[in-house]
Amino acid sequence: MLAGVSVTWYTWLEQGRPINASVDVLEALARALRLDDAERRHLLTLADRQGTVHEPPIEDAPDALVRLITAMEPSPAYVLGPWFDFLAWNRSESLLYPMIERLQPPERNLLWVVFAEASARSLIADWDDQARRLLAEFRALTVSLRDEPAVVSLVERLHEASPTFAGWWGEQDVAGFQTRLRRYHHPNAGELVFEYQQLTPSEWPGLRVAVQLPVPGDDSAQRLAAWRNIA
C-alpha cells in the first residue's frame, strides 16, 4: 500500500517475472521498505534488464596508483580491482600482512584472504564485524558484475573453502563503504589500529585505493615502520 502497488504485482517482482517495473515504482518501493542508499542502488541495478557493457578488466595497477600508494608510506595501502583482487600494495601493507606477497591469482583477493586464510582471521581483531561488512560491500559493488566468470568462480570457491562465507552469502546483505577503525593482533608489531579509507580514482573508476591511516595519538604506524627497519 505504501508503494502504491498490488500484492500480485509485488509477488511477480520478487519472482523475477518480466513486468517491466519503472524506476519511479522501484523508488517508491525502496522508500516503503526503508532501504538505505546502498540497498536502493542494489535494487535498481538488479532490476536493470538492459545489462551493462563492461570494459576489459585491468590486470595490473596503473603506475600512477602504484606511486600513490608508495607515497602513502608508512600507512599500509593497496589497490583493488573490480572484484577485489589485489593489484598492487606498498611495503607497509606487506609488513602488516606478509601473506599477500606469497599468494598467487586467483587467491590474491581481499575476499579470499579474509574468509579462506587462517592467518588473516587471527590477524584481524574484530574479524566477525569486519568480514560481514566486507562481504556486504562486495555484494553491493559487484552486483552489475555478478555474472562475470571471475566473480562466479570466486563465490563458488569461497563456498567450498569457508562455511562462514557460505552461510553469510545467503543472507543477501549489501552495504556502502564507510570509514572505520580496523584493529590487528600483529605477531611482531603488537596491537595495531588504523583508520580504514577507500578512494576511487576518477580515471579508473573500476579500481579502489585502500589506505589505513594513523589514528591521532596512536603509534601503530611508527611501530610497524620500526619493525620494517629491524626486519
Q: What does this protein look like?
A:
The protein has helices spanning 7-15, 23-32, 37-46, 63-71, 91-96, 110-116, 118-123, 127-141, 149-161, 163-169, 220-230; strands at residues 77-80, 86-89, 180-186, 190-199, 208-213. The model has no long low-confidence stretch (mean pLDDT 89). The chain has eleven helices and five strands, in the order ααααββααααααβββα. A hairpin with a 5-residue loop joins β1 and β2. The termini are far apart. The protein has a single domain (63-230), classed as Beta-Lactamase.
Short summary:
The chain has 231 residues and is an alpha+beta fold.
CATH level 3 topology? Beta-Lactamase
The low-confidence parts are none
Described by the principal axes of the CA atoms, the overall outline is elongated
Number of spatially distinct domains: 1
Output the CATH class name: Alpha Beta
Question: Which key terms come to mind for this protein?
Answer:
alpha+beta, 13% strand, 11 helices, five-stranded antiparallel beta sheet, 45% helix, Beta-Lactamase, 231 residues
Fold blueprint:
Layout: H1 7-15, H2 23-32, H3 37-46, H4 63-71, E1 77-80, E2 86-89, H5 91-96, H6 110-116, H7 118-123, H8 127-141, H9 149-161, H10 163-169, E3 180-186, E4 190-199, E5 208-213, H11 220-230
Antiparallel strand pairs: 1-2, 1-5, 3-4, 4-5
Helix pairs in contact: 2-3, 9-10
